[in-house]
C-alpha cells in the first residue's frame, strides 16, 4: 500500500457543519502566508434530483447568518433563504401567547429558513473550488491512532494521516464510534413527523411554535408559500399519523394546529424519526474534536440544533486560527482543550434549556399547563422579559441594543 497522504487536519462529514468548517478554514493564513492542508471525507454526493415540495428545511438564526456572512458564505446561500420576521409561541386552547418581532430588536430578521438539498448543492460546489482535498463519495473504514497523528483508511483504500481529526459526521458518527467515545442519550418517549405543507393564508414571515394536547408543532416559512412542519408526538402515535391518507392527515393537523394560517390545503410526503437528546460530555479526544450533531443532537422544539453546531464550528475555527498563527501543532492538547473550554458554557446552557422546554411543554398536567400559560402571558406583556428569549432565538449571547 502507498504512503498515506498527510494533512494538518481531516474533517469527516461534509454536510452543513463539516462543509462550513472546511470553507472557513481555507481562509486562514499564517505569517508565511500558508493555509492549513485540509481533507474532507463525505460518504454521499449531493443529489442531483431536487425533491422540491418535499425538501427538508432548517432555521438559521440571525447570529448564524452573521457568522456565515463573516466567512463570505451567505452571499452564495442567501437566495435560498426565506426570512423569519416574527415568531409566535402559543398553547392551543389557552390564552398564553408570546410574539417576537425582529424590528423590536433592531434586526431585519430573526433568522432564515433554508432547504438542505439546495444548500448542499451550493456548499459542494464551493468545496470543489476551494483548497480542500475532497474525498466524495468515500467513507472511513478504520482509524489508527498514535501519539502524533491519526491514520484513516477509507473505503476506497486511500489512507489519510492528520494531526487533528474532526468528526462532523452526525449522530451515528464513525469517528466517535471508532475512537470509542461514550454517548449519553435521554429518551423523551417522543417521535417527530416532518412534512412540507401549504395553507390558504400567506405566512408573511411568521414562524410558529404551537403546543397542544397532540404534541408540539413547529411551522417555518419556506419559499413558494410552503411551510416546513415538525410535529412532535408520543412514539405510539407516529405510525398512525404516517399511515394516514393526505386528507386525513391534513384534518388531524388542522385540529392540532388551528387556523392561524387558515385552511391547510396541501401536504407533501411525510417522514418520521425518534426524538432523543444525544450528547458527548467532552466532545474532544486525543487529537480529535467533534462538532455539530456528532457532538450533540437536540430535540427540534426550538430549532437550535444546527445553530448550536455552527457555534461549535466557529469556536473551532478560532482555536485553530490561533494555533496556526503561532505555528502550533493543531492536534495538541492545548488546542483541543482550548476548544473544550470555549464551548462548555454554551453547550451546557443550550442542552439544559432544550430539555426543560421539552419536559415543560410536552406535559398536559394542569399545574404545568397553567404555569406555562402565565409565563407566556407575562413574557408577551412585559417587553424586557422577552429580550433573553429573543437573544436565544436569534443565537446571540450578548445584550441586544
Automatic annotation (TrEMBL):
One of its GO terms (biological process) is ubiquinone biosynthetic process. The keyword Repeat does not apply. InterPro entries: FAD-bd, FAD/NAD-bd_sf, Ubi_Hdrlase_CS, UbiH, UbiH/COQ6, UbiH/COQ6_monooxygenase. Its cofactor is FAD. Belongs to the UbiH/COQ6 family. Pathway: Cofactor biosynthesis; ubiquinone biosynthesis. It comes from the Bacteria. Component of the Ubi complex metabolon, which regroups five ubiquinone biosynthesis proteins (UbiE, UbiF, UbiG, UbiH and UbiI) and two accessory factors (UbiK and the lipid-binding protein UbiJ). GO terms for molecular function: 2-octaprenyl-6-methoxyphenol hydroxylase activity; FAD binding. Residues 7-320 form the FAD-binding domain. One of its GO terms (cellular component) is ubiquinone biosynthesis complex. Keywords: FAD, Flavoprotein, Monooxygenase, Oxidoreductase. The keyword Ribosomal protein does not apply. This is 2-octaprenyl-6-methoxyphenyl hydroxylase.
